[in-house]
Amino acid sequence: MSHIAFLLVPGLHLLDLAGPAQVFSTTADFGDPYTLSYIAEQALIPTAQGLPLVARLDWPELGPEDLILVPGWRALALATSPVIGAASLQFLRDHHARGGTVASVCAGAEALGRAGLLDGRRCTTHHDLQDELARRYPRAVVIRDVLYTADDRVVTSAGIASGIDLALHLIATRHGPAVAAQVARNMVVYARRNGHEPQDSAMLRYRSHLDDTVHRAQDLLDASFDQPLPLPALAAAVGVSERTLTRLFTRATGGLTPLRYQQTLRLERAQHLISHGATVDAAARAVGFEDPRMLRRLRAREI
Questions:
Q1: In this predicted model, what pLDDT tens digit does every residue of 31-72 receive, in sequence order?
Q2: Domain parsing of the chain, residue ranges
Q3: Where are the beta strands (DSSP E) in the chain?
Q4: Which of these ranges, 2-11, 21-30, 117-126, 220-229, has the smallest mean pLDDT?
Q5: pLDDT tens for residues 236-284?
Q6: How many Å apart are CA 130 and CA 124, to the nearest integer?
Q7: Band of the pLDDT at 1, cuts 50, 70, 90?
């Protein structure tokens, strides 16, 4: 079980907190348990939206597999951000030094900067605050106009709703893109991509739609892409005709048929195996191609 500890600062934005918290809570509903804690330097935390929050004053025991996340707050300028005590900043530094991950949403990057955790690392924040973040922490590498960055267990995201993207990225890293896609689907949000961060799987790339029938078909293909799954069997499993499934699938994925989607998954996995030393023939067998020539043709077509 992993622990997610949120450091709450007065004036925080509710969505900066609630978005990531919902992602981890939903992941727990699917069998990957998380414990969520809310810590602050005062028991009652006012929020930017007027709803006060009750927090604990002591830090839980955290290990290297755990995460501290700092939601952002309303700030016209980072220089006028709320005071964050030396003990909290030291806890952030110590957790990272012990192998743990720290993260921020929006103005929360200021807390990581004060803790010295942005020095020499890529980071981002809300577009209105990017220039000031770069001025305040000249040793940080501020990446502008991206949803999130990840650098040496320091993960930062842009404004407000991007905290959901950050959390989905962490879930995909820990549990695989299929789990992240399932969580995004349950939350009725797009499993969005960050243009400056490489995406590891088509399981997320073609999930930015709200068609439940297609999602169920993709769930089956994601789980068994290396096994034969003929269109009649796939259509029967999701309760529609072959023609309907093909039409819905093509529309939802921007032109892919179920077979082409399965081939894309196989190709992606094969490319990974080849990059780690497998031969083309061995990779083809591992991902379910009976004839290695099919893999060669797909690779040539991609190139």
A1: 999 999 999 999 999 999 999 999 999 999 999 999 999 999
A2: 2-186, 209-302
A3: 2-7, 34-39, 44-45, 53-54, 67-70, 101-105, 122-123, 141-142, 148-151, 154-157
A4: 220-229
A5: 999 999 999 999 999 999 999 999 999 999 998 898 788 778 899 999 9
A6: 7
A7: low
Report in angstroms the alpha-carbon separations of 227 from 237, 262, 263, 270, 289.
Answer: 15, 10, 11, 14, 9
**pLDDT, mean over the chain:** 91
Count of other CB atoms within 10 angstroms of residue 268: 17
Looking at residue 147, the DSSP 8-state letter turns out to be S
Can you read off the two tokens belonging to residue 209? 């739609």
Which of these CATH numbers, 1.10.10.60, 3.30.870.10, 2.40.10.10, 3.60.130.10, describes 209-302? 1.10.10.60
Cα(218)–Cα(169) distance, integer angstroms? 19
Q: Which two tokens stand for residue 159?
A: 């404004």
**CATH 1.20.1070.10 is right for the domain spanning 2-186:** no
Spatial distance between the Cα atoms of 74 and 98, rounded to a whole number of angstroms: 31
Unique residue bearing structure tokens 């040539």: 300
Question: What is the C-alpha to C-alpha distance for residues 109 and 111, in angstroms, rounded to an integer?
Answer: 5
Question: What are the start-end ranges of the E strands in 119-254?
Answer: 122-123, 141-142, 148-151, 154-157
CA–centroid distance for 286 within its chain: 27
